[in-house]
Design goal:
The chain is built from 1 helix and 11 strands. The protein has 177 residues and is mainly beta.
Length: 177
């Protein structure tokens, strides 16, 4: 009998050593002044109020969105996976996940799962990340130095060529030799 019980324990017998599913973590409302409030995000009302619910409240409460720094949705899961890790980062820090489908002088075009194909002005784009995990990137040019434009505000006329290394007398011999 003892061997049967031991075998049942070791084999993960029905319900004996099963862990309880983790409790869902509450959402988090973080205010501009640093205060935080745990609970459940219910939505935005009239564009002015972040509606919040907690177990200790009888009804949802609205907070002025001008005083809210961020809302962290811990229980949120995407309806559908993006299928691509590539993304476009805008100059304000927002990221648009999706597949890069076009890039020209005026715009970047991204196919997203949440808004279809978006055409974004290049003036709003800070970073294009077509393969963040090191996947193969297709290259279509420019194919010569003349096709590239370097922009660096610290060196408006271009980065200067490197000079001799420190301690290098320019005669091909290491310093002190």
């Amino acid at each position: 009998m003892r061997n049967l019980l031991l075998a049942s324990l070791l084999s993960g017998g029905p319900g004996l050593l099963q862990a309880a599913p983790p409790e869902p973590r509450p959402d988090l409302l973080r205010f501009e002044n640093g205060d935080q409030l745990h609970g459940s995000f219910q939505g935005i009302k009239d564009g002015l109020l972040a509606v919040w619910q907690r177990d200790d409240l009888t009804k949802p409460v609205g907070f002025n969105t001008g005083q809210v720094q961020k809302i962290i949705l811990r229980g949120a899961r995407p309806i559908k996976s993006t299928g691509s890790l590539s993304h476009v980062t805008l100059v304000n820090g927002d990221r648009l996940p999706g597949t890069l489908v076009g890039l020209d002088d005026d715009s970047v075009t991204v196919a997203t799962t949440f808004a279809g194909v978006l055409k974004v002005s290049r003036k709003l784009v800070g970073l294009v990340t077509p393969a963040p995990m090191g996947a193969r990137v297709r290259y279509y040019g420019p194919y010569s130095e003349d096709g590239w434009l370097m922009v660096n505000t610290a060196y408006p006329d271009g980065i200067p060529a490197p000079g001799p290394a420190a301690g290098d007398a320019g005669d091909g011999n290491p310093a002190g030799a």
